[in-house]
């Protein structure tokens, strides 16, 4: 977050954009949303039209109150949290976050002034009234009402991708039911979790559900995995590509792997680019929904006297219902939290007003008594 408000980065970007705009006499600015205040500011400063661009329609919908942001140190869903934690994450934490940003915003505004740009505090003031294009599949994001200014396009994919290496091509051709496993470049998890995933891969291979796995390790620290090596999980053989049905590579030509007919499933962290490429190549990334319903009935159902499974459809897929429906009307809409905040705010204002009134009344009485005393002395 501090990098977003870095005055030096802002100044460097602003000057580069301004020089480019002067050299080619820019007619339109096309600004990526990420860490890019300078682009939007320059467009406004030069009074040129600007179009925004982002990988997700993050500006298109206000998140429901029961969802929180981990940046506040809160859970993503607040469904099972106490009133105190929900109040803290909905009211106190955002105020603390805004307060912590004020000094960084002040420094950035000082830099704006030095460059002749009008300072502002509302971070969305440069993006509220412009056309925004969201690089995503239509229908990929959760349904939400959007503005006409917010349009889903794409996905925007490169014209060319790296081809398969000879090793990967040979592995895929020899394994008709391959699972591709990658966690992207920004996801980190513990060695214990990786060991569990690898053991699960071996179980899937032993059960003949899949016959091969390609794992792009990327930023995973594979040296930490060696301590988990045993007869059930031959980590050393796997990492050295001595296990015939698992191929390990630091980086992988992902699109080419997903495009191969023998790649049957993708175990992914769910990043935007990975999801778009998987959808584009029609590579499954999730369990089949119909099978999930059947399995849920299998484990949640109750057998009757004839041994047949019976299920209560009111609770069968309860976990799929949005949290606010399970929380009830008052908790689900945060009426208790916001109502308490309003009451506390009004009580504080009334208390302050009452105290101010008493102080003024006291001072006025002192002033009146003083005047009365001075008149008495004169008489």
TrEMBL record:
Stretches that traverse the bilayer: 337-357
SUPFAM superfamilies xref list: UDP-Glycosyltransferase/glycogen phosphorylase
GO molecular function, one term: UDP-glycosyltransferase activity
Pfam families: UDPGT
Keywords: Glycosyltransferase, Membrane, Transferase, Transmembrane, Transmembrane helix
Protein name in UniProt: UDP-Glycosyltransferase/glycogen phosphorylase
Protein species of origin: Gigaspora margarita
Taxonomy of the source species: Eukaryota, Fungi, Fungi incertae sedis, Mucoromycota, Glomeromycotina
């Amino acid at each position: 977050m501090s990098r977003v408000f870095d005055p030096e980065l802002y100044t460097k970007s602003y000057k580069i954009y301004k020089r480019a705009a002067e050299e080619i006499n820019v007619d339109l600015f096309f600004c990526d949303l990420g860490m890019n205040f300078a682009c939007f500011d320059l467009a406004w400063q030069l009074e040129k039209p600007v179009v925004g661009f982002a990988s997700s329609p993050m500006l298109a919908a206000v998140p429901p109150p029961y969802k929180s942001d981990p940046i506040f140190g809160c859970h993503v869903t607040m469904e099972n949290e106490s009133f105190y934690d929900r109040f803290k994450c909905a009211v106190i934490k955002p105020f603390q976050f805004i307060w912590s940003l004020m000094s960084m915003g002040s420094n950035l505004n000082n830099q704006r002034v030095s460059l002749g740009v009008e300072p502002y505090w509302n971070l969305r003031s440069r993006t509220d009234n412009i056309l925004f294009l969201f690089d995503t599949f239509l229908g990929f994001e959760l349904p939400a009402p959007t503005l006409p200014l917010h349009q889903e396009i794409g996905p925007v994919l490169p014209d060319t991708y790296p081809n398969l290496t000879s090793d990967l091509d040979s592995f895929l051709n020899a394994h008709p039911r391959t699972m591709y496993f990658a966690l992207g470049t920004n996801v980190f998890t513990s060695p214990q979790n990786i060991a569990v995933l690898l053991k699960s891969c071996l179980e899937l291979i032993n059960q003949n559900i899949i016959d091969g796995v390609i794992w792009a390790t990327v930023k995973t620290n594979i040296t930490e995995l060696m301590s988990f090596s045993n007869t059930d999980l031959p980590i050393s053989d796997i990492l050295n590509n001595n296990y015939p049905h698992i191929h390990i590579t630091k980086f992988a030509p992902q699109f080419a792997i997903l495009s191969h007919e023998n790649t049957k499933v993708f175990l992914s962290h769910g990043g935007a680019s990975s999801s778009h490429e998987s959808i584009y190549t029609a590579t499954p990334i999730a369990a089949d929904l119909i099978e999930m319903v059947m399995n849920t009935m299998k484990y949640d159902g109750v057998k009757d006297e004839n041994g047949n499974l019976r299920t209560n459809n009111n609770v069968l897929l309860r976990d799929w219902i949005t949290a606010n429906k399970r929380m009830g009307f008052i908790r689900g809409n945060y009426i208790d939290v916001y109502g308490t905040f309003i009451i506390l705010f009004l009580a504080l204002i009334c208390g302050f007003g009452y105290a101010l009134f008493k102080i003024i009344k006291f001072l006025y009485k002192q002033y009146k008594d003083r005047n009365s005393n001075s008149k008495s002395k004169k008489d």
